[in-house]
């Protein structure tokens, strides 16, 4: 990495927070730790971070509420950390803007690997041309525009649309799309990418009303259709 990335660790178990901080620091990341949910948004109002490791169960304010409020003003990547592994919790987290889940118990090495995988994906997007087809992709600012209309996307939605936009008309399977989003070979369900697509469609429809841009191919996956306007 060309410059040290900053990770905000929101975890109320001091030993676990320190363990994550130590492992991330050994991989040249900068870290800060917060142990109370009420302190997260005020801290973010005064500081910048490149990724948030956000525990679900926190004193003061839980991780779901923090993520929901954060997404009103910021697209910073958020990894939810939780012992609640039921699929409904996963999907709810994705729908409010979480980019990934890390389930307890976990290995700190796994967390570091996932963090590195995210930044590798961002670096790959940054290397692409700034404008691709009918969506203008700006990986430096992590922005997507259509006819100068800005789409308010989460990082996961940005990566998904950038992938589809790179080759309009190509059909991507759910597995291929998840590979583009996450390159650490985790096991996920088809409904995970469906949840991202659902949210992405709503945001695309806000700037391109009345047209189905992201098309479902039954039994296969998704593709991006050309838009002429």
Summary tags:
alpha/beta; single chain; 8 helices; globular; 41% helix; Arc Repressor Mutant, subunit A; Rossmann fold; 5-stranded parallel beta sheet
Q: What composes the largest sheet?
A: 5 strands, parallel
Structural class assignment: alpha/beta
The tally of domains stands at: 2
| CATH 2nd-level architecture of the largest domain | 3-Layer(aba) Sandwich
Shape: globular
Radius of gyration, Cα only, in angstroms?
18 Å
- Helices, by number, come to 8
Q: Find the CATH topology of the largest domain.
A: Rossmann fold
- In total, the number of strands is 11
Question: What is the percent of helical residues?
Answer: 40-55%
Distance between the termini: 40 Å
**CATH superfamily descriptor of the largest domain:** Response regulator
H/E topology pattern? EHEHEHEHEHEEEHEHHEE
Average of the residue pLDDT scores: 84
Strand order of the largest sheet: 2-1-3-4-5
CATH class of the largest domain: Alpha Beta
Which residue ranges are poorly predicted, with pLDDT under 50 across at least 5 consecutive positions? 128-132
User: What proportion strand?
Assistant: 15-25%
